[in-house]
Design goal:
CATH topology: Rossmann fold
Oligomer: single chain
Shape: globular
Distance between the termini: 37 Å
Number of strands: 10
Mean pLDDT: 90
Low-confidence stretches: none
CATH class: Alpha Beta
CATH superfamily: L-asparaginase, N-terminal domain
Length: 162
């Protein structure tokens, strides 16, 4: 099985240089996560953006959508910032013939307390097991992007209907 991974930035890829520095969104940390694990699948990573998701706009989402739609691999993971992950997932929801899973982290992957490894692992399991569609893999759960929200107070994603 092969998985295509698109990285667009977000907290999962943030790098802090020291306590006095502001962060920068760095290169995709998903490569370091997967390279350090005994995995039984092939993957390819493509970095599309290096942005905090709060800085993403409609043009950025259109870029992500164009790449995902054009990708021949039917199993796709998008690493993304958690603040606007839901909006991007909704933009991808009408792409047929693919299982697309968005994931990210509440803390940078380089932090010992980060949920990045856990969330990427869940995303890999989801993309290899579920039928075509768009999903969000966060906090050990799978969410429909049209029926969830980020609860900033609790630092988790949760079910929600508008």
């Amino acid at each position: 099985m092969k998985i295509k991974i698109f990285s667009v930035g977000g907290t999962i890829d943030k790098v802090y240089f020291d306590r006095l520095s502001a962060y920068q969104v760095g290169f995709p940390n998903v490569r370091e996560i997967l390279d350090g694990l005994p995995i039984a699948f092939e993957y390819e990573i493509e970095s599309l953006l290096r942005k905090d998701s709060l800085d993403m706009d409609d043009a950025d989402r259109a870029l992500v959508r164009a790449h995902v739609a054009a990708e021949p691999c039917p199993k796709i993971i998008v690493t993304h910032g958690t603040d606007t992950m839901i909006e991007t997932a909704k933009r991808l929801s009408d792409i047929p013939g693919k299982c697309i899973v968005l994931t990210g982290a509440m803390e940078p992957a380089h932090f010992k307390s980060s949920d990045a490894v856990f969330n990427v692992g869940v995303a890999v399991g989801v993309v290899s097991a579920l039928r075509d569609g768009v999903y969000i893999a966060m906090n050990g759960r799978i969410f429909d992007p049209f029926k969830c929200r980020k609860n900033r107070e609790r630092g988790i994603f949760e079910d929600w209907e508008e």
